[in-house]
Amino acid sequence: MDTVVLLKQVPDTETLIQIADDKVSIRTEDVKWVINPYDEFAVEEALRIKEKHGGKVTILSMGPERAVESIRTALAMGADEGVLIDDPATQGSDALGTARVLTAALRETGYDLVIAGQRAVDDDGYQVPAAVAELLGIAQVSMVIKEEITDGKIRCERTIEGGTVVVETDLPALFTTQRGINEPRYASLPGIMKAKKKPLVKKTLADLGVDPSEVGEAPAKCRVKNLSFPPERSPGKIIEGKTVEAKAAELVRLLREEAKII
Amino acid sequence: MAQGILVFAEQVDGSFRKIAYEAVSEGRRLADTLGETVTAVVLGSGVDGIAGELGKYGADKILVGDDPALADYTTEAYTKVLFDIVKDNDPRILLLGASSQGKDLSARLAVRLGVGLAMDCITLKLDGEKLVATRPMYGGKVLAEVALEGVPQMSALRPNVTEIVEAAKTGDVERLPIDTGVVKTRVVEKRVETASRVDLTEADVIVSGGRGMGGPDFSVIEELADDLGGAVGASRSAVDEGWRPHSDQVGQTGKVVSPNLYIACGISGAIQHLAGMGSSKYIVAINKDPEAPIFKKADYGIVEDLFKVVPAITAELKNRH
Ligand SMILES: Cc1cc2nc3c(=O)[nH]c(=O)nc-3n(C[C@H](O)[C@H](O)[C@H](O)COP(=O)(O)OP(=O)(O)OC[C@H]3O[C@@H](n4cnc5c(N)ncnc54)[C@H](O)[C@@H]3O)c2cc1C
Ligand SMILES: Nc1ncnc2c1ncn2[C@@H]1O[C@H](COP(=O)(O)O)[C@@H](O)[C@H]1O
After folding, report:
1. pTM of the model
2. CATH tag for B5-175 (out of 3.50.50.60, 1.10.1200.10, 3.40.50.720, 3.40.50.620)
3. Which ipTM value was assigned to this complex?
4. Pocket of ligand 2, candidates A93, A128, A142, A202: which has the most ligand atoms within 8 Å of its Cβ, to mutate?
5. Which ligand is nearest to the CA of A215?
6. All structural domains of chain A
7. Reduced to 3 states, what is the DSSP secondary structure of residue B15?
8. A120 lines ligand 2 (CB under 6 A)
9. Which of A237, B71, B191, B282 is the most buried (most CB within 10 A)?
10. Closest CA of chain A from B100, distance in Å
11. By the 8 A CB rule, do B293 and B270 touch?
């Protein structure tokens, strides 16, 4: 079972997001970068699959040089090798452009299974995994909380509104992770030491044979035109009252008469 | 020339999801601006009977793919069938709901169509014939206006943010022949909780509990939610403690919800929690710590022990019924 994890480096969720002067991107200077939390679940699940079924775990990421650090973290958790596609021409890619690059890399690494996050918490795009699966012509299963592999098939439990569905499909396939699937392990000290010696190759579009005109800003079909901050919520009202009951009654009155929502 | 608005109307086991009405209503609004028509698409098995309902929300025409092979959602079958329908109808705009099914389907379909997709949008507007979509990014810390290339212009709407408007149209129903192609995915089992409570992403009211609940007994919150016809949510801490299932978690690594009213009980208001509920219309915070950050985001706050005040609110609501 050779598994490839699609891993994106994103700003830490605590990071203060500032809009850059171009109004279409964010300022990256003071950002702390981490592995997309859903991709952490993906790494963990890949490691568990390896522990059960053997094979290797490859971490695949498209991003700038700094993404090396996140790939190393995944290697320290126990993944076997990393591939970073770092090419300035990929900047400004939409989901399809990103998927083209990742797909080309996946064709090189080979895969029985691809695991991705259900969304990256930077652009909250929810699109790259499905695009990769479509370009590879394999099945995708979204928002998986449990999986089981037997005889070249994978059975996944996925969450839907108000319940879960169990689906089965042939390998190779791609699935995306959802919270609840596992608790990602921490990288151990020996793991961190070992990770330094694990293979981590950097590639460009030329290495992958991807035509630069197919990726990046120019062919993007979904483009950010403007970023803004959502309107600030006006400071709320702290409800005063002599008793708990008085406060409760005042809240109910406000919800009925002022907000008119109940 | 591409014309009209095509809307995928999601149904489950023979009932439309709320997002189906929202998407058709939004389609109607855009169509009226353009002076064009709305065609809704319903896929499933045994859905002939419900299809006509969409006329009420402004569908001029309803295309029905009714086939046992579409009884359960699979990405492969639905993508293939909807792709064929889009190709036959050549719409200017294609709308779906960004439910779990809609996200899975729209993302794959966009690539097959070779068009851009604005996912999880909160507002749509027209600039001439160009669709301009607004969607939250970075857990709602930023709003992005996005423009799309390709025909149709494709957008998936976040559930619970679009008003459902009745605008009766003829709603002529037409049944289509279906070819799902090769489908390698099989639905083995479906577990839908039959709880009377509505799903978090569709709920008008959500009452959530956090670490301040102090244990797995959420009955005070459940009673308030029941009284308001709402759903129960939780912070990640409450889920991590094992007090609530993962499916109840609201936030950056949980569900993103936009109810009319969100009542946070014993939740401090961490940035990752706000990422999931910051777009709620009204936020009420109940916390015994007056310094809790949640109060900065709340429209109304009560500084009290939740175990005292939540039952008092429920009692007050019952009084006035
Ligand atoms: C990558 C990442 C992703 C995350 N994703 C999520 C997510 O999706 N959702 C999420 O919620 N969190 C998420 N978190 C966790 C988040 O940072 C907070 O730790 C979490 O939201 C805190 O939960 P809480 O408010 O219930 O607990 P606390 O922060 O411990 O707050 C409990 C509150 O209850 C109050 N309280 C206690 N007793 C009472 C009482 N009797 N009556 C009234 N008030 C009382 C206290 O004053 C306190 O304010 C994430 C964190 C990270 C790093
Ligand atoms: N640049 C990238 N490199 C590697 N994987 C990516 C990249 N962008 C997105 N992904 C994968 O696709 C998932 C969803 O991303 P998105 O569609 O951007 O929300 C992420 O959780 C990753 O698994």
Report:
1. 0.97
2. 3.40.50.620
3. 0.96
4. A128
5. 2
6. 2-214 (3.40.50.620), 230-262 (no CATH)
7. strand
8. yes
9. B282
10. 6
11. yes
